[in-house]
Design goal:
- It is a single chain.
- The chain is mainly β and 168 residues long.
- It has three helices and eight strands; from the N terminus they run H-H-E-E-E-E-E-E-H-E-E.
- The protein has helices spanning 9-17, 22-25, 130-133, and strands spanning 29-38, 47-54, 58-67, 74-81, 92-103, 108-113, 143-152, 158-167.
- The strands form two sheets. A four-stranded antiparallel sheet has the order 1-8-3-6.
- The chain is elongated, with a radius of gyration of 17 Å.
Length: 168
């Protein structure tokens, strides 16, 4: 065994440039929240957009709260381009970065953390800005949206609330 002295990527970047990304060392914790009503019959591939966050933020946690029993519904939790953008019109970036076929059919009366349901957020990815964690080759600037894309149709109505905690 050996004693080692290893720096995180954030400290290495600070050594190289003198200034780390604020989201890694001393950023401001923020929260974005949205609520979407799901109707009986909402079909597979329906996109439910909940929150718009800066492309440069680091997402720390995504919580869901579900009221009602949305029979058989499930969805991927991922990242889309801003839906108001004229250049990309809300195109998908990573459909299941945070969750893959997350069940929406059971009521969740308390906030439930689903940040890494898909197991995509490794220790290395957890430190990345959202644009990079989602697999983009460069920062598009502006905002990205966190959304659920249905992978199973809704057999009943209900309401889903999403809370995105991020560091900016």
């Amino acid at each position: 065994m050996a004693i080692v002295f290893t720096k995180s990527a954030a400290l290495t970047a600070m050594d190289a440039s003198g200034q780390p990304p604020s989201s890694r060392l001393h950023g401001t914790v923020r929260c974005a929240m949205g609520t979407v009503a799901i109707a009986n019959g909402d079909s597979i591939a329906s996109i439910l957009r909940f929150a718009r966050v800066p492309s440069t933020c680091r997402v720390g946690r995504i919580n869901l709260k579900i009221t009602g029993t949305i029979t058989s519904a499930a969805g991927d939790i991922g990242v889309y381009r801003e839906s108001t953008s004229t250049t990309s019109a809300g195109a998908v970036v990573d459909v299941d970065l945070f969750g893959s076929a997350q069940a929406l059919s059971t009521a969740l009366p308390a906030w439930t953390d689903v940040t890494n349901e898909s197991a995509s957020i490794t220790a290395l990815v957890a430190e990345m800005p959202l644009w990079q964690a989602a697999g983009m080759t460069s920062d598009p600037g502006g905002y990205l949206e966190i959304a659920i894309t249905l992978t199973a149709a809704a057999g009943a109505a209900g309401t889903v609330a999403m809370e995105v905690v991020y560091v900016d």
